[in-house]
Every structure is written in C-alpha cells, then in structure tokens.
Amino acid sequence: MAIQKKAVTAFFLGANLLFWCYFWIDFGLRAVPYEPHLAAFEEVLPFYVFWGRALPFPQEGIAPSMKLARVIQRPCFMAVRPII
After folding, report:
1. How confident is the prediction along the chain (84 residues), in pLDDT tens digits per residue?
2. With 32 labelled, which of 55, 57, 66, 72 sits at a CA distance of 20 to 30 A?
3. What is the largest CA-CA distance in the chain?
4. SS3 call for 11
C-alpha cells in the first residue's frame, strides 16, 4: 500500500513538474518585452507580466498553456472558494 502511494505521489509530482516546464517555455516563447507605464486612453494593458516580459492581450486567453493552467488549477480554486 505504501509503495502504491509513493508511486501515485511521484507520478503527480512529475506531471506537475512537466506541466510547469511546458508552461514557462510556452510563456517565454509568446511573451514580449514590456515596460510598465500609465495606460493611454482605452489601452488594454497585459495582465500577465513577469520579469519585464508580458503576454500580449489576445494571447492571454488563447494560449494553450494558459487554458491548460486554468483547467489544472480549477480544483485548487474550487477548494479555496468557500474561504474567500
């Protein structure tokens, strides 16, 4: 029984590691350099900005890695929903 739990845990940890590697590689390939600034009239600013790079606005909703992250993280969001 303990071996089975270790195997399942190792599987999920490995799958999580692979997902996040894929996510950051995809993000890095899609991101463009970004300087924080005040928005011009009706300018849409990117929501995801990391280390001076940002996803352009249309990419935020259609990037496969972003869609997959929402699906994978949904159980976490549902678990904390009653708390917040």
Report:
1. 677 888 888 888 888 889 889 988 988 888 888 877 777 787 777 777 878 888 777 766 677 888 888 888 888 778 878 877
2. 72
3. 61
4. helix
CA distance 31 to 38: 20
Cα angle value 4/6/12 (rounded, 5°):
105
Q: What is the pLDDT of residue 1?
A: 65
**What are 53's strand-pairing partners?**
33, 50
Token pair of 60 as six digits: 């935020």
Range of the domain at 35: 2-80
Number of structural domains the chain divides into: 1
